[in-house]
Amino acid sequence: VTRDYTIHLHKLLQKIQFKKRASRAIREIRKFAARAMTSKDIRIDTKLNKFVWSNGVRNVPTRVRIRLSRKRNEDEEAKEKMFTLVQHVPVESFKNLQTETVKDE
C-alpha cells in the first residue's frame, strides 16, 4: 500500500524550543506514519531527512509532502512482518493537494 500525504509541520512545532525543532519534526513524521500505516517499524529516507534539516535546526519547512509505502520485511527474524518507508515527494505548491493512493509499480 502506497499513499501520498501532506503534513503540516508548522502546527506540530509550535512552542518547541529552537534547538529541538528539526529532530522533533522527524519524530512527528514518524508518529504520523505509525498512525497512518499501523506499523511500529518506520524507516525515514535520507532525502526526507535532508529536506527537513535543509534550513537548519530552527527553520523547519512549514509543510512536507511524503509518500508512505508499507513493505514486507525481508529479514525473517524481524518482530514485525511489515515496515513503512517514508519518502519525500517534491512539490511546487501545497495548494489543493489531497491524500492520494499511488499505484505500485
> How many runs of DSSP E, i.e. beta strands?
5
Spell out the helices and strands N to C.
EHHEHEEE
Can you give the helix content as a percent range? 25-40%
Structural class: alpha+beta
What this model shows, in words?
This protein has 105 residues and is of the alpha+beta class. It has helices spanning 9-12, 21-37, 46-53; strands at residues 2-8, 42-44, 63-72, 82-88, 100-101. It contains 3 helices and 5 strands; from the N terminus they run E-H-H-E-H-E-E-E. The termini are close together.
Features:
alpha+beta, single chain, 3 helices, 5-stranded mixed sheet, 5 strands
Helix-strand blueprint:
Blueprint: E1 2-8, H1 9-12, H2 21-37, E2 42-44, H3 46-53, E3 63-72, E4 82-88, E5 100-101
Parallel strand pairs: 2-4
Antiparallel strand pairs: 1-3, 1-5, 3-4
Please provide a brief summary of the model.
The protein is an alpha+beta fold and 105 residues long.
